[in-house]
Write a structure and sequence with these properties.
By secondary structure, the protein is of the alpha/beta class. About 50% of the residues lie in helices and about 15% in strands.
């Protein structure tokens, strides 16, 4: 019997009513680069447990997220939840904002890109050397207020600098709101909200060991490093997101029991 074909950018797993890409990180990056080469834009969103928990508190946020062109699983809970959806919907690995940024900045040749938000993202870009620095056409780390005037300023600079990819290093939901605003004015851009990825990859940042990442314990590593800032996110909000995934995962089982 022939082995099943590997998933592509067009293969999805439905989780919490959203189509989550089953492509791995390399396939995702290759797909984005292909869109850039063809002049075709996309809003890529890396979905994590923080975002899922927000669905339970803000019904409008799901509707915002659902407008993304590509959604990846940024977190092991989503990968594990996909196993309840059947063999043809299993997500083999997560695609995080951190991994995506890291792989992009390591490319020998980069398309023109911009960064909006973040804490000293220039220091992170400098760690990757000349190619990453030369391809960075615009960097804004001031206050983002989402006003129409500011968005128009961003769009003007992005067009002038012929930017093809934009990283939004902003918190949830501001990054997603800005992505949608820019997409409406520049649909040819590839846009992704990557939160604090540039800080994690920067001189003062660090990632959890690989074994912790595989076990879905990266949140604990970050909590130990910054308990004052992250305790509420991980200990208060995250359980609601996990609960949403569990209920969604058990739904197919309940349907089977009724048949």
């Amino acid at each position: 019997m022939a082995s099943p074909a590997p998933p592509t950018m067009n293969d999805h797993c439905m989780l919490c009513g959203l189509p989550i890409s089953r492509a791995n990180m390399k396939q995702t990056l290759d797909g984005l680069l292909d869109r850039i080469a063809r002049g075709e834009g996309a809003w890529l969103l890396t979905l994590n447990t923080e975002m899922l928990s927000r669905f339970t508190r803000d019904s409008g946020y799901w509707a915002l997220v659902a407008q993304a062109d590509i959604i990846t699983a940024d977190g092991m809970p989503l990968v594990w939840a996909s196993k309840f959806k059947g063999a043809n919907q299993v997500i083999s690995e997560r695609t995080t904002g951190v991994d995506l940024v890291d792989a992009f900045l390591r490319l020998p040749q980069l398309p023109a890109y911009a960064i909006i938000g973040g804490v000293d993202p220039a220091a992170t870009v400098a760690r990757y050397g000349g190619a990453a620095q030369q391809a960075c056409r615009y960097l804004f780390n001031g206050k983002v207020d989402l006003s129409d005037e500011q968005v128009q300023q961003f769009v003007g600079v992005l067009r002038e600098q012929q930017v093809r990819m934009v990283f939004l290093a902003l918190n949830v939901p501001k990054g997603d709101q800005l992505a949608l605003k820019i997409k409406s004015l520049m649909p040819e851009l590839v846009i992704t909200s990557i939160g604090g990825s540039f800080e994690i990859l920067g001189p003062q940042g660090s990632r959890a060991p690989k074994w912790m990442q595989r076990m879905g314990m990266e949140w604990f590593f970050r909590l130990v490093r910054e308990p004052g800032r992250l305790w509420k996110r991980y200990l208060v909000h995250y359980p609601a997101g996990i609960g949403l995934l569990v209920r969604d995962g058990l739904r197919p089982l309940s349907k089977l029991s009724q048949d």
